[in-house]
């Protein structure tokens, strides 16, 4: 393994806590764990927990989930031969301790920082990250694919040692249908799944019976080579019985264990269930994991471990969200750094107007997929609890569930991040759009999102929604426009409608008590082109969609300072287009820029298609400004838009270049 693959070399003095944690200081890679005693592993876990808290206090990030899996992380790397054996972390925000143990301790304080470590697992970052994961519920599918690939390779190469594959998935993530699809397939994958171990990290006690000494004893017993060998012998004997008796005997054994352990559901899906196990007790975890590692031909296994989110850090344990996601904080007090007071977030503005409308209209209902606070629907849940539905990590179900309510005359809002709505695209098309059902899609986190990086960027919704017939798409340029568009969506019953808005705060505009309903498909002129006074060869028009308008207006000021004051327009709607506005801009200007915070093939493409179809591309030079055709890594949002070429300087430069103004004439 190269130092570069592992996130850089460990160097004396590179880690500010070096010297505080004697055992952790001896661990550069997981191989250093494998001769440690259980007692030493316990101490290492405590040191690793303290290091994780200290690191995240300086960077912010997802803390609670990582604290809950510290012992599990240590045990997995102590028992399994990583990176040859694969550990697949679901979502990845629980993988900070894993990163520290796998050669990235010196870089852990660059987490989610520009040029630093990703907040999620990432294949390009380390060979200890076999699968990138920032969206949930993928680990079992990916792990099964790896296990089958190893098995096929071993079948053709007798010298190849078949790897163990461990998929660690939380009780929230396992609520998604994809996890059950994967488990169902694992049962049918035959020997290809024989070395797949799914670790269900249950940190909410949602499906776990009480954990005690008897449960721990039974788990060790059922995972032991002796028990598995006896079970295999019994299976061979039972197979000699008539078919009906064989099936009866197998069910009896499964249900007997199911009554004791609660694992009947997983047995029905074809997994051998072990658990529940205390996920913080190293003396339980290590022997059970060793048993599962060493068992032959055991088939897919599900090990159920019970953990506590935020474990070992008192402020996290006491917090309602267990410090799921935190800003920088004081390690001693747990107090998080607060941003200076400013304008409300776009999410809060949407939430406020939706609650107001819902109090006046009992037909309005709200659906989210495990993100009530992130989408602002927690306020709706408090105001209208009987009309709020959190369906768990199940975006596909959320969309079709909303469609079902729409068929019966309700006015459903489906509030899902742009990046997560991608997971339900077939349901949007087939279950909503094809039937022209009035489902309202509140698409949060549109555009670039900062520290969460490319995995969470809302780059593609204009593309994947804009191609669907009958879909209405709105994009507010500021929080006042969002207020109006939320009111518009509440009143719109003619088919599906979406409003997309970014992460972060508004501009600080004064907001009225309630929004106004907008005319569908009608944009607006923000500034008329002023008197030209330079070596220009015609006028400039800039047509903006969404919150890039603020930078467009700054670019307009730069152009005006150089004698080229442009026309600025706010499209408001990506679909239907305001064709009259577009035609007017094209006919009366030499250059037309379109600006959007989405990928190529979105709003700008819609505009150009309209112009080409009507012969107007022959008379105007169009320059679409979009996100570049590549992923943009985690950084601040402002820095990301500079990198994308969508800041004021880049917009002004694009206009000048299209107009043919010499570089020497450009004014910064």
Automatic annotation (TrEMBL):
Binding site for Mg(2+): 171, 203
Superkingdom field: Bacteria
Span of domain Transketolase-like pyrimidine-binding: 344-509
UniProt-listed InterPro entries: Dxylulose-5-P_synthase, THDP-binding, Transketo_C/PFOR_II, Transketolase-like_Pyr-bd, Transketolase_C, Transketolase_CS
Key word Transmembrane helix present: no
SUPFAM superfamilies found in the cross-reference section: Thiamin diphosphate-binding fold (THDP-binding), TK C-terminal domain-like
Reactions accelerated catalytically: D-glyceraldehyde 3-phosphate + pyruvate + H(+) = 1-deoxy-D-xylulose 5-phosphate + CO2
Assigned EC number: 2.2.1.7
Coiled-coil region list: 31-58
Signal peptide coordinates: none
Required cofactor names: thiamine diphosphate; Mg(2+)
Cofactor comment: Binds 1 thiamine pyrophosphate per subunit.
Pathway named in the protein's UniProt entry: Metabolic intermediate biosynthesis; 1-deoxy-D-xylulose 5-phosphate biosynthesis; 1-deoxy-D-xylulose 5-phosphate from D-glyceraldehyde 3-phosphate and pyruvate: step 1/1
Residues given in the record as thiamine diphosphate binding sites: 93, 134-136, 172-173, 203, 313, 395
Keywords annotated in UniProt: Coiled coil, Isoprene biosynthesis, Magnesium, Metal-binding, Thiamine biosynthesis, Thiamine pyrophosphate, Transferase
GO terms of molecular function: 1-deoxy-D-xylulose-5-phosphate synthase activity
NCBIfam families hit by this protein: dxs (TIGR00204), PRK05444.2-2 (NF003933)
The protein's assembly and partners: Homodimer.
Family the UniProt entry places it in: Belongs to the transketolase family. DXPS subfamily.
Function: Catalyzes the acyloin condensation reaction between C atoms 2 and 3 of pyruvate and glyceraldehyde 3-phosphate to yield 1-deoxy-D-xylulose-5-phosphate (DXP).
Protein name: 1-deoxy-D-xylulose-5-phosphate synthase
The organism of origin for this protein: Nguyenibacter vanlangensis
Underlying gene: dxs
């Amino acid at each position: 393994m190269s130092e570069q693959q592992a996130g850089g070399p460990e160097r004396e003095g590179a880690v500010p806590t070096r010297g505080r944690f004697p055992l952790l200081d001896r661990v550069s890679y997981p191989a250093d764990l494998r001769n440690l005693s259980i007692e030493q592993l316990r101490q290492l876990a405590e040191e690793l927990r303290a290091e994780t808290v200290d690191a995240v206090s300086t960077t912010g990030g997802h803390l609670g989930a990582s604290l809950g899996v510290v012992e599990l992380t240590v045990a997995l790397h102590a028992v399994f031969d990583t990176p040859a054996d694969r550990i697949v972390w679901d979502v990845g925000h629980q993988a900070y301790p894993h990163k520290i143990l796998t050669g990235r301790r010196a870089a852990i304080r660059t987490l989610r920082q520009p040029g630093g470590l990703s907040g999620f697992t990432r294949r390009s970052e380390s060979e200890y990250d076999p699968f990138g994961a920032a969206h949930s519920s993928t680990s079992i599918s990916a792990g099964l694919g790896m296990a089958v690939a190893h098995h096929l390779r071993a079948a053709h190469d007798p010298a190849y040692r078949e790897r163990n594959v461990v998929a660690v998935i939380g009780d929230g993530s396992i609520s998604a249908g994809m996890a059950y699809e994967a488990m169902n397939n694992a049962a049918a994958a035959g020997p290809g799944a024989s070395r797949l171990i799914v670790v269900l990290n249950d940190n909410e006690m949602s499906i776990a019976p009480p954990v005690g000494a008897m449960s721990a004893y039974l788990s060790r017993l059922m995972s032991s080579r002796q028990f598995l060998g006896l079970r295999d012998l019994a299976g061979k004997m039972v197979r000699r019985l008539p078919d009906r008796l064989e099936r009866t005997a197998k069910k009896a054994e499964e249900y007997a264990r199911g009554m004791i352990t609660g694992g009947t559901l997983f047995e029905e899906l074809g997994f051998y269930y072990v658990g529940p196990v205390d996920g913080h007790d190293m003396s339980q975890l290590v022997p059970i994991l060793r048993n599962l590692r060493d068992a032959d031909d055991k088939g897919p296994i599900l090990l159920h471990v019970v953990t506590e989110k935020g474990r070992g850090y008192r402020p996290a344990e006491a917090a309602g969200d267990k410090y799921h996601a935190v800003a920088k904080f004081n390690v001693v007090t747990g107090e998080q750094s607060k941003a200076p007071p400013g304008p409300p977030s776009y999410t809060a503005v949407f939430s406020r107007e939706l609650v107001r409308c819902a109090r006046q209209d009992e037909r309005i209902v709200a659906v989210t997929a495990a993100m009530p606070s992130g989408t602002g629907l927690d306020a709706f849940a408090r105001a209208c609890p009987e009309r709020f539905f959190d369906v768990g990590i199940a975006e596909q179900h959320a969309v079709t569930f909303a469609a079902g309510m729409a068929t019966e005359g309700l006015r459903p809002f489906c509030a899902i991040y742009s990046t997560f709505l991608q997971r339900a695209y077939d349901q949007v098309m087939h279950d909503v759009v094809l039937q022209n059902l009035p489902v309202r899609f509140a698409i949060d986190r549109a555009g670039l999102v900062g520290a969460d990086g490319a995995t969470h960027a809302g780059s593609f919704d204009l593309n994947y929604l804009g191609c669907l017939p009958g879909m209405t798409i709105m994009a507010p340029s500021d929080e006042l426009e969002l207020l109006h568009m939320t009111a518009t969506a509440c009143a719109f019953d003619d088919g599906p409608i979406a409003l997309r808005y970014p992460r972060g705060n508004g501009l600080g505009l004064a907001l009225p008590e309630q929004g106004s309903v907008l005319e569908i498909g009608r944009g607006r002129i923000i500034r008329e082109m002023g008197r030209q006074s330079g070596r220009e060869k015609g006028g400039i028009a800039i047509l903006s969609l969404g919150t890039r308008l603020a930078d467009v207006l700054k670019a307009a000021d730069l152009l005006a300072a150089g004698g080229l004051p442009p026309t600025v327009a706010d499209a408001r709607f990506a679909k239907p287009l305001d064709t009259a506005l577009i035609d007017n801009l094209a006919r009366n200007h030499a250059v037309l820029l379109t600006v959007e915070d989405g990928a190529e093939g979105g709003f700008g493409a819609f505009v150009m298609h309209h112009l080409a179809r009507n012969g107007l591309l022959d008379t105007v030079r169009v320059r679409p400004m979009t996100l570049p055709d590549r992923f943009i890594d985690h950084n601040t949002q402002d820095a990301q838009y500079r990198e994308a070429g969508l800041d004021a300087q880049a917009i002004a430069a694009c206009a000048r270049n299209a107009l043919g103004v010499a570089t020497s004439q450009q004014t910064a």
